[in-house]
Design a protein that fits this description.
Elements lengths: L1 H21 L14 H22 L4 E5 H6 L5 H4 L6 E5 L7 E5 L7 E5 L2 E2 L18 E8 L16 E7 L10 E10 L3 E11 L4 E12 L4 E6 L2 E6 L5 E13 L5 E14 L14 E16 L4 E23 L2 E21 L4 E16 L8 E14 L3 E15 L9 E12 L7 E12 L3 H5 L11 E15 L5 E23 L6 E25 L2 E16 L17 E11 L2 E10 L2 E2 L9 E2 L2 E14 L2 E10 L7 E3 L2 E2 L4 E9 L1
Parallel strand pairs: 4-7
Antiparallel strand pairs: 1-6, 2-3, 4-5, 6-7, 8-9, 8-35, 9-10, 10-13, 11-12, 13-14, 14-15, 15-16, 16-17, 17-18, 18-19, 19-20, 20-21, 21-22, 22-23, 23-24, 24-25, 25-26, 26-27, 27-28, 28-31, 29-30, 31-32, 32-35, 33-34
Length: about 675
Amino acid sequence: MIKITVVLLNIRFYFAFVSILGIGVFLPNISVAQIDTAKANQLQEVKITEYKNSRINLSPTPVQILIGSELKRLNSLSVADAIRYFAGVQLKDYGGIGGLKTINVRSMGSNHTAVFYDGVQLGNAQNGQVDLGKFSLDNLEEIAVYVGQKPELLMPARGFAAASALYLKTAQPIFSSGKKYGFGASFKTGSFGLINPNLSYKQKISNKISFLVDVSYLESNGKYRFRYRELAYDTTIIRNNSDVKSARVEATLFGLLPDSSKWNIKLYNYNSARGLPGAIVSNRFTFTQRQWDNNSFVQASYQNKKSARYNFMFNTKYAYSFMHYLDPEFKIQNGCLDNRYTETEWYISAVNLYKISNIWELSLATDYSLQRLNANLYDFAYPSRNTGLVAFASALNLNRLIIQGNILATLIAEQVKNGDQSANRQEYTPSLMASWQPLQTKDFRIRSFYKSIFRMPTFNDLYYTFIGNTKLKPEYTNQYDLGFTYGHTSNGKHLAYLSIQADAYYNLVKDKIVAIPGNNLGRWTMVNLDRVQIKGFETNIQTVWDLAAQLKLKANANYTYEQAIDISATAFRYGDQIPYIPVHSGSARFGIDYKNLVFNYSYIYTGERYSQKANIAANYVKPWYTHDLAVGVNFVCQQTRFFFNAEINNVFNQYYDVVLNYPMPGRNYRFTLSTNF
């Protein structure tokens, strides 16, 4: 009772603190100068290149970035497809366009990677995972993955509260001189009955404000061939119940201020209906499970620069998520399994940054969120979670040496209507990172970081009927990293740009949450069992070659070596690699731009893995690799510029599973026609 009172008092203090910070912040004057079109396009490209290079080289934590021009040339339909090209990142994919797709960075699990959309986190208290297949690349300007955290002080406390972070950034509208609107359209079609139109409209309301609306629809029958082998049985089957229909609508209002301050308001809605293709085992190929999703949120962000020494940022969000799951084969007393979940979240954040001097900065970030989950399940707990986060951070920039550290306080109080509730939490976790330039050249830097963080069990872990365990402890992780970066830009030379990143890392995960099967498949138990040790090395190389006046070549490659082993004292197989983590993995991309033609080749490799904790022959999962090709052309028709792109994915028609018994598509085709005017 005393702990509950302390947490509630801390939350009340938080509200008072945020209220005080918000007084007098808003109602600034806004103005934006108009810029000539050709100059704007030229300056924008240089600015993005320099910004990307400086972030990679100066960052004390490993960062990998894909910007708009690179995203367009990838053989990718969603964010999930794009992140496959990052080093140290595993994508858990259950097959097809509509299958669940989640990110796993350095083998710490999907729940340890936070996903931010325009600076505000996408939350899911129910299962802790974000399905990246729901997010299109059509309106994105940038995708970035940070291991540890983003090395910035002006960010919400949630930015400090995860082991890794994926940042998605919407492309802001740019207008040519004298023009106040713009229209964009694209249409994708291809294998498996794919239909994917996208429309966007941007409007310059005034010199102060503009808005962008982006709408897309996706439909696919999901029927693709795969090879099935079991003993002497070898045949080709068509995947069943993998269809999907989805619609996405986004509207964003942007504002710019004379002092570089900015604000935006975003409305988002995603609806989908899909089949859930099951595991292909025991000669079973037909499935009937269905799922419907409705996800909506409205969020606002405001960043103000009061003076040369003081910055302030404010974020707020309301999110609503509804999921309907139907299993006609799971019979219950009144029919079949028909589960419906509704999750809501209120979120507010305030950040203060103060520059004590030219080399020393301090920041204080405070976040509060309230998450509730309702369901139509028998004897459901109806949990709600109050989370308060306070992050105090400091950074020293000594030119050749950059040091940043922070301490994060996490206060969590939960309530349930039925049954026992999880214990309240009050945790303090530190981080320390540094980047050092040991030589006179600014191209080479050594970096290192240490981060301690934990993640709370999800609502499903704690309260799911017959499965949840309210006594679960949080998962604790300690991350260590040591590496270097080299980045060099050469004007007038054939090798115009070279970037090399290499990092050795060690992670320790304690009290790992796992599911243990009970007497039947419908009754599992969530327990804290494992102690996982992760050791690895990853490298990323990016190059740009100017071979001739209109001939440019881009070549990128990454490689990851990783040992993620179970070292729990109670481990059934001590020292074995944990499930689905390959020892070797990597990717390569090769692109050529010649006049109006664009060519792209990409290769992805994932080494051998095991589907269970025991590294034995029965659990062995073969390595897989894919080759993808794309050819595009820019052309003008009726004074309108178009781009046509043709893709061949999985060129050699390899049959493989990312998750065992969930076969992936073989060779497939996709065609895209897009325009902007």
